[in-house]
Write a structure and sequence with these properties.
Chain lengths: 224, 305
Amino acid sequence: MLKIKHTETQSETALSVYFGGGALEIAQLAEYLRERLLGVIEIIPCSSSLFIEFHVLKTNSDQLIKAIRQHLLSFEVSEGGELNRETLELPIYYHSEVAPDLIELAKQKKLSIEDVIQIHSEASYTVTSLGFAPGFAYLSGMDTRLAAPRLSSPKTVAKGSLGIADQQTAVYPNQSPGGWVIIGNCPLTLFDIDADPITPFKVGTTVRFKPITREEFLAIGGEL
Amino acid sequence: MREEKQHLKVIQSAPRMHFQDLGRFGYAHLGISHGGPIDLHAHCWANFLLENNPNATTIEISIGNASFLALEDSVIAITGAEMNARIDGLRIQNWGSHLIRKGQTLKLGYAAQGNHSYLAIRGGFIAQQRLGSSATVVRNHIGDYLTEGNELKAHHFSIDGSFTPRQTPSHYIPDYNAVEEIRMILPPKQDSTITNKLLDTSFAISPHSDRMGINLISETPLPSLPGIISEGVALGSIQLPPNGHPILLLNDRQTQGGYAKIGNIARIDLPLLVQAKPSTKIKFIPLSQQQATNEWSEFSRFFAL
């Protein structure tokens, strides 16, 4: 059950509501509120908070916090909207020719590359939030044996790069600056502004990774 | 429906020049940045002078040195950075609306004051709408820079000779060379050591700044603060990365961030901040949440945002 720990006004037009955990429930609440709060521009579910941006002439922080507290009561009763429980299987080419940090990670962890691939692709992951870039989905559920800190300075990361940062894993939908440890590449398009939906990820989506060969990677449209 | 026509052709493009409307709202939960004019004040005035909707698409021209050939008679407005605009060699006033005849050339020089200029056209430029907005966010791979040869469309208005130029009243025109103090909202709960240091320090605007954020440099870095669990970040958020040099988040910022937040620039002062030249020294002045909200409401009401 979600409990508001505290709230904080961020600017003239933004506020955060902190729950101290419960990413999936927060995402559910965000969808519930999306159709119910007036004067709101954005509702962003984060891993332990909700970020709300509003129109300064239509509402204010106090009004919104009051409304959220009320909606939270009815949300608990109705258990909110349906949480997305789809499973998405993403093909991944785990190889140093597309993954600059794969060999180094294996070395650091005293694992063979095959072990890294097996450990990473055996687990089942859950999208806990979307952010950083369009269609960038933070995934929880990674085996702690692969946990690795971000690189000390960001570099240019290729489209489709599969990365690790601490205990999270994620695919970069587009080329971008990034500091995650890159261990593979997904040849699928994960963000297309002209498609519907524009990204296959939603908070709550289960994600599994399937190792593929170089030939399969190229056949699906992967680029070396 | 009015007829659409190619109105201007890009002859020379500035280093960064792209379409903007008010921004792309309602998709931040998918990681999509708002975009929108980095100087909302100048964008709004450009549209206001032409009696356009504030959401009408303008062209944001950064750094300067751009030229356009008029393919039709058009009414345009120029606001923001002083780029010494000329039509066929004759100086035209910044913060004003102007008539440009078919075959004439509009030329903007390098920004002498400020960084970003806005070019609006009566009725707004017709640009591709993506998720309900024409805002270009290059880092989101939505839209792209305008380049030489691009022909820019607008609705056709017949110009019957009764064109009356309009000008922004001088007291609304900021002096971008005089930016020294930027007002900010302090977080309700904050270590007073950080707040005092933040308010005491003179910061220089780093040349390594862009539409995502402005980097500040000071002789002595601010004390290091631990990161936070990633959460939503507001426009103007003052982030403090471990190196102690603050980053001010702007329109193309990522939707969530994990650096410590030590305040938020007052939205009403953001246009001054983004127009201050690199290396400009600034100091922060605290502004109450209420006062900031009042001023922002007034701005929003004035331009019917």
